[in-house]
């Protein structure tokens, strides 16, 4: 049962002015599956490497079970790691690759053999044990890398984009497998990815980072439904949330393309926070822009008229792209059989109960704190 | 402003800036280094440099004052070491000054020193490991090279050999001799013209033979590629001095060329009086030696070009054949330019290597008829003549030659770096 | 149809011409070596042979003469002692400093690498005057152990000249091993030394072999430095290159068949080593050579 704490952790590389990681604070409880997600260069991998002991921690404290381990070497931190490139030792057989960590820890030879065999069974590479990594396919190499991490029972598993070199199909199945292994082992897993789908599907808690700063920490549902700011809102979810700036006045939001009436709940918050007669940004997820007369009847005051710019047919749904304001692209996900073609002028309905509100200047969510209070 | 003050005082007294900034430990080491420097300068550098240019009563400027008491050569090396030490002292002062300035800056900006010293192990250990190598490079390459150059400005030659004699400074006399002394200048210019011919024709032969054979073996219709490649690497695998000696015999009056091949070609029976003087007649010997160098040198280019050919994507040729190209236009418009682009730095160093190839000249020039009045074989090139002069203990003249050789080779190598962008790419990074 | 056959004729002629040149060149390369090989087993006492295959073949006679009439085995031992010692010394420096330059970022790193590159400008031959004088000043030739000390001096020169550009080549090869592997091993629990020994060393072995062969061949083939530094020593203390040279230029004491026998024996180790490691050497050369 271990608790991992990162307190005001910062990273600054020599000869650079800027911090690669600024003031990172996180407490991880035992058994949690934590995903660091963010665009490339956001500092997520750097943070992971600091946890692994591959990078020095410039400032702040890193504690495992209350003990400061900043200056402890990687091998004493009791961690295992899966690398993006898998980092399999090319000159060793798969068996030696998996067993190397145990060999260094002076395990008995027969013991190593049994453990390797067992783990090979689990990750499904028993037939390749005597081969060199080069002879394996990408997916098989990935399994070897997983097996190498799994053979020990460390306090923390670290995974640095382990699926990014796999094709889409394999990625989905391996995702499930990693989640299953995590449940079986019960140790803390910290998983780094730039793919928000991986973050959503696997994480107990997501740490979303950008420009070296934590944007939001929370469950996938938290981040999706109650994003702290516009960056979180647009990063999580596919297709990304559509946003547009406009003015708010007495319950009505007006932008270049349309005017809609906001829900009483939103209105109460906006008026209460002093946003009347000022600029705000609204954000709507694609599945909250509907089409059809039923919706038009339900929400007559959020019906907008748009010209279809592009259509993506996805089988179970259709994505409609339009520009309420030149340069601002909106997406709506509608049912797949609607007869629409490009350049058609149609009517869509914005679900007024699912509109995200952001401050035009700070880009922070206006509803974040109220919603959070509502939860608890 | 404080950082400028500590910079300047640290330049004069290393460590003083640190003491001013209350960096006691570093400051004390600096002051101790200064004391060591002063001691070295007084005890070693000044006396050695004084001896290194001693004015005798008769006006001669000698290295050392008394024969047998002072070994001129040891004093010369000591003087070079002294100058190097002085340069080292200046660098130490600069390092202290720059460091003091940075610390002053940090104190001014943040109120304390932010640069942590915990990366000492990351600095000290690598430096400790690479230091012995640089001591070797200094002792066995840099120091000898500098001393060799200095010898060109002295009268160090037999019989003036220390410790029985003192070496004298002679300024540019040895260089001037190349122009003024009729025998020396005649020797120099004849050697120079043959050196140019030798360097370029042997390089051209080696490079073109290497490219041609590599391209031919690489032809997709040729079978037995591996066999041909093995045969063509053979001259490189056998040590060059052995093949040169083999050829020395092969082309002699008794060798296989005269006793087997020529009778077979002409149908005339072999007779000792009827042989061709391949390595004896000067003009014939020059051609023979260039051909031998072609034999010896092409495998390196052959291997290199074979490697480059493998990297040329075959769709280039497919595209060209769609455009109507044939084998010849393919070679001149695709293969050759691509080879030249990637291998030109190597070709330049190849030229420098052939220029400086003393071994083949030294081993093969023995049998050649030397013209009346000349001490040296007409086959000698500038580098090999330098070597001969050295063997004859004419060190000062040899040094002039090796200075010429160093400049030519140096320029060629720098040129090849520029071509390959050695300083730009990550090679050095 | 006519056009195609004309094209085929040209192609056929081209390939035939190709083969002709290649076979002709092969003969030019093999013939002198073959003659030497035959001569080594030629028992005939005359100074020349006019037939390709000797009339009287003896497998041993010339080699026995080589042992009894010359100091051949001394030369052999001297040469390979110097060569092997230089190779081991240079390889140690090349491997360790190549590793340091590749994996550690320290302040002196870049100046050090540039120095290694710039030192290439100085051809080894132009340091000879001073090297001889230094060896002389050190009292090597006057010492009771003049022979081993001279060898040691030469070995140091070979080690130094053999570990400048080769270090850079080695460093580039270390660079080609992904750092992920080091880090992975670090997390597996390996120390710095274990990372070096278990992970990096096996992966850079091809380049170690290539550079080892190169540094091994240089002292064997060198004529210049031994000619200069070993001149004052006894003739049995010289190297193969100089010793064989006296054999061929001094017909009174030997004959070409004995020289041929000596040449074949001297060529065997380098050629065997070369062809065992041919694959490594060719790939190493193309990797190192094209880069510069």
UniProtKB/TrEMBL annotation, chain A:
One of its GO terms (biological process) is carbohydrate transport. The keyword Lyase does not apply. InterPro entries: AAA+_ATPase (IPR003593), ABC_transporter-like_ATP-bd (IPR003439), ABC_transporter-like_CS (IPR017871), ABC_transpr_MalK-like (IPR015855), ABC_transpr_MalK/UgpC-like (IPR047641), Mo/tungstate-bd_C_term_dom (IPR008995), NA-bd_OB-fold (IPR012340), P-loop_NTPase (IPR027417). It comes from the Bacteria. The keyword Nucleotide-binding applies. Keywords: ATP-binding, Nucleotide-binding, Transport. Residues 4-236 form the ABC transporter domain. GO terms for molecular function: ABC-type transporter activity; ATP binding; ATP hydrolysis activity. PROSITE patterns: ABC_TRANSPORTER_1 (PS00211), ABC_TRANSPORTER_2 (PS50893). SUPFAM superfamilies: MOP-like, P-loop containing nucleoside triphosphate hydrolases. One of its GO terms (cellular component) is ATP-binding cassette (ABC) transporter complex, substrate-binding subunit-containing. CDD domains: ABC_MalK_N. This is ABC transporter ATP-binding protein. It comes from Entomospira nematocerorum.
Automatic annotation (TrEMBL), chain B:
Keywords: Cell membrane, Membrane, Sugar transport, Transmembrane, Transmembrane helix, Transport. It is a multi-pass membrane protein. The keyword Transmembrane helix applies. It holds the Pfam family BPD_transp_1. The chain crosses the membrane at residues 33-53, 73-96, 134-156, 192-215, 227-251, 287-309, 330-353, 359-377, 398-418. InterPro entries: MetI-like (IPR000515), MetI-like_sf (IPR035906). One of its GO terms (biological process) is maltodextrin transmembrane transport. One of its GO terms (cellular component) is maltose transport complex. One of its GO terms (molecular function) is ABC-type maltose transporter activity. PROSITE patterns: ABC_TM1 (PS50928). Residues 192-416 form the ABC transmembrane type-1 domain. It comes from the Bacteria. It is found in: Cell membrane. Belongs to the binding-protein-dependent transport system permease family. MalFG subfamily. Part of the ABC transporter complex MalEFGK involved in maltose/maltodextrin import. Probably responsible for the translocation of the substrate across the membrane. This is Maltose/maltodextrin transport system permease protein. The lineage of its organism: Bacteria, Pseudomonadati, Spirochaetota, Spirochaetia, Spirochaetales.
From TrEMBL, chain C:
Gene3D superfamilies: MetI-like (1.10.3720.10). Keywords: Cell membrane, Membrane, Sugar transport, Transmembrane, Transmembrane helix, Transport. SUPFAM superfamilies: MetI-like. It is a multi-pass membrane protein. InterPro entries: BP-dep_ABC_trans_perm, MetI-like, MetI-like_sf. Residues 76-277 form the ABC transmembrane type-1 domain. Belongs to the binding-protein-dependent transport system permease family. MalFG subfamily. GO terms for cellular component: plasma membrane. It is found in: Cell membrane. The keyword Membrane applies. This is Maltose/maltodextrin transport system permease protein MalG. Signal peptide: none annotated. Part of the ABC transporter complex MalEFGK involved in maltose/maltodextrin import. Probably responsible for the translocation of the substrate across the membrane. The chain crosses the membrane at residues 12-35, 75-101, 113-135, 147-169, 199-220, 258-277. GO terms for molecular function: ABC-type maltose transporter activity. One of its GO terms (biological process) is maltodextrin transmembrane transport. It comes from the Bacteria. The keyword Plastid does not apply.
């Amino acid at each position: 049962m271990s608790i991992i704490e990162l307190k005001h952790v910062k990273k600054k590389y020599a000869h650079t002015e800027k911090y690669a990681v600024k003031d990172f604070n996180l407490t991880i409880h035992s058994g949690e599956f934590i995903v660091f997600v963010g665009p490339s260069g956001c500092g997520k991998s750097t943070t992971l490497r600091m946890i692994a002991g591959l990078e020095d921690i410039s400032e702040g404290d890193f504690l495992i079970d209350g003990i400061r381990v900043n200056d402890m070497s990687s091998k004493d931190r009791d961690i295992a790691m899966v690398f993006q490139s898998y980092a399999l030792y090319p000159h060793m057989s798969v068996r030696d690759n998996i067993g190397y960590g145990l060999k260094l820890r002076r395990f008995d030879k027969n013991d190593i053999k049994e453990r390797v065999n067992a783990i090979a069974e689990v990750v499904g590479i028993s037939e390749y044990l005597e081969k060199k990594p080069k002879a394996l396919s990408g997916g098989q190499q990935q399994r070897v890398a997983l097996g190498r991490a799994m053979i020990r029972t460390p306090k923390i598993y670290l995974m640095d984009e382990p699926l990014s070199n796999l094709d889409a199909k394999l990625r989905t199945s391996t995702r499930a497998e990693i989640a299953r292994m995590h449940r079986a082992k019960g140790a803390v897993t910290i998983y780094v990815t730039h793919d928000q789908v991986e973050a959503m599907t696997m994480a107990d808690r997501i740490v979303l980072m950008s420009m070296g700063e934590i944007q939001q920490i929370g469950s996938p549902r938290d981040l999706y439904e109650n994003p702290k700011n516009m960056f979180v809102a647009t990063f999580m979810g596919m297709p990304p949330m559509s946003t547009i700036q406009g003015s708010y006045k007495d319950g009505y939001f007006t932008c270049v393309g349309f005017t809609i009436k906001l829900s009483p709940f939103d209105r109460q918050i906006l008026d209460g926070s002093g946003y009347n007669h000022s600029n705000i940004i609204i954000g709507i997820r694609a599945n909250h822009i509907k089409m059809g007369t039923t919706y038009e009847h339900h929400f007559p005051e959020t019906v907008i008229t748009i010209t279809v710019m592009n259509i993506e047919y996805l089988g179970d749904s259709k994505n409609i792209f339009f520009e309420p304001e030149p340069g601002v692209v909106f997406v709506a996900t509608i049912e797949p059989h609607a007869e629409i073609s490009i350049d058609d002028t149609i009517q869509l309905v914005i679900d007024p109960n699912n509109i995200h509100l952001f401050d035009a200047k700070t880009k922070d969510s206006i509803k974040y704190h109220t919603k959070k209070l509502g939860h608890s | 402003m404080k950082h400028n003050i500590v910079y300047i005082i640290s330049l004069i007294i290393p460590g003083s800036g640190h003491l001013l900034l209350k960096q006691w430990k570093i400051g004390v080491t600096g002051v101790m280094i200064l004391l060591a420097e002063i001691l070295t300068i007084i005890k070693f550098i000044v006396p050695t440099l004084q001896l290194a240019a001693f004015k005798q009563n008769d006006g001669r400027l000698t290295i050392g004052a008394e024969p047998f008491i002072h070994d001129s050569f040891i004093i010369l090396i000591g003087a070079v070491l002294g100058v190097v030490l002085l340069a080292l002292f200046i660098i130490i002062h600069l390092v202290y000054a720059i460091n003091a300035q940075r610390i002053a800056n940090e104190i001014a900006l943040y109120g304390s020193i932010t640069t942590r010293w915990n990366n000492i192990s990351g600095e000290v250990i690598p430096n400790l490991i690479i230091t012995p190598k640089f001591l070797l490079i200094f002792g066995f390459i840099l120091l000898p090279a500098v001393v060799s150059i200095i010898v060109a400005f002295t009268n160090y030659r037999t019989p003036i050999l220390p410790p029985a004699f003192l070496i004298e400074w002679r300024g540019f006399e040895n260089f001037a001799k190349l122009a003024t002394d009729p025998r020396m200048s005649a020797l120099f210019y004849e050697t120079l013209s043959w050196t140019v011919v030798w360097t370029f024709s042997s390089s051209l032969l080696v490079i073109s033979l290497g490219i041609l054979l590599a391209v031919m073996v690489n032809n997709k219709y040729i079978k037995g590629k591996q066999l041909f490649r093995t045969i063509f690497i053979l001259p490189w695998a056998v040590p060059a001095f052995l093949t040169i000696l083999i050829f020395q015999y092969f082309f002699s009056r008794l060798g296989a060329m005269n006793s087997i091949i020529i009778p077979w070609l002409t149908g005339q029976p072999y007779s000792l009086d009827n042989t061709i003087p391949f390595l004896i007649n000067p003009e014939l010997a020059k051609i023979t030696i260039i051909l031998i160098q072609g034999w010896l040198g092409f495998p390196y280019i052959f291997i290199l070009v074979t490697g480059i050919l493998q990297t040329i994507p075959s769709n280039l040729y497919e595209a060209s054949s769609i455009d109507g190209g044939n084998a010849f236009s393919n070679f001149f418009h695709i293969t050759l330019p691509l080879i030249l682009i990637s291998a030109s730095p190597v070709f330049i160093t190849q030229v420098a290597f052939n220029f400086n190839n003393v071994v083949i000249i030294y081993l093969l020039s023995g049998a050649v008829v030397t013209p009346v009045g000349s001490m040296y074989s007409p086959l000698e090139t500038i580098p090999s003549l330098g070597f001969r002069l050295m063997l004859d203990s004419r060190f000062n003249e040899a040094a002039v030659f090796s200075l010429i050789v160093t400049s030519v080779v140096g320029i060629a190598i720098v040129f090849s770096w520029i071509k390959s962008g050695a300083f730009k790419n990550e090679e050095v990074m | 149809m006519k056009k195609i056959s004309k094209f085929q004729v040209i192609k056929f002629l081209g390939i035939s011409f190709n083969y002709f040149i290649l076979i002709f060149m092969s003969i030019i390369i093999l013939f002198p070596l073959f003659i030497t090989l035959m001569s080594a087993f030629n028992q005939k006492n005359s100074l020349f042979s006019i037939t390709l295959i000797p009339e009287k073949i003896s497998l041993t006679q010339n080699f026995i003469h080589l042992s009894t009439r010359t100091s051949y085995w001394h030369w052999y031992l001297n040469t390979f002692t110097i060569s092997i010692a230089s190779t081991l010394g240079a390889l140690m420096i090349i491997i360790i400093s190549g590793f340091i330059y590749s994996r550690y970022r320290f302040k002196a790193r870049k100046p050090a690498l540039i120095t290694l590159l710039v030192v290439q400008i100085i051809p080894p031959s132009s340091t000879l005057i001073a090297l001889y004088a230094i060896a002389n000043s050190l009292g090597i030739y006057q010492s009771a152990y003049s022979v081993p000390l001279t060898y040691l001096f030469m070995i140091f020169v070979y080690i130094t000249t053999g570990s400048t550009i080769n270090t850079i080549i080695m460093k580039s090869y270390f660079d080609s091993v992904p750092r992920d592997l080091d880090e992975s091993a670090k997390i597996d629990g390996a120390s710095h030394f274990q990372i070096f020994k278990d992970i990096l060393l096996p992966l850079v072995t091809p380049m170690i072999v290539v550079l080892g062969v190169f540094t091994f061949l240089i002292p064997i083939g060198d004529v210049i430095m031994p000619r200069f530094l070993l001149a004052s020593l006894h003739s049995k203390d010289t190297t193969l290159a100089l010793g064989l040279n006296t054999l061929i230029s001094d017909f009174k004491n030997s004959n070409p068949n004995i020289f041929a026998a000596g040449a074949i024996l001297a060529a065997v180790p380098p050629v065997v080593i070369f062809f065992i490691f041919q694959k490594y050497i060719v790939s190493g050369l193309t990797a190192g050579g094209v880069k510069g």
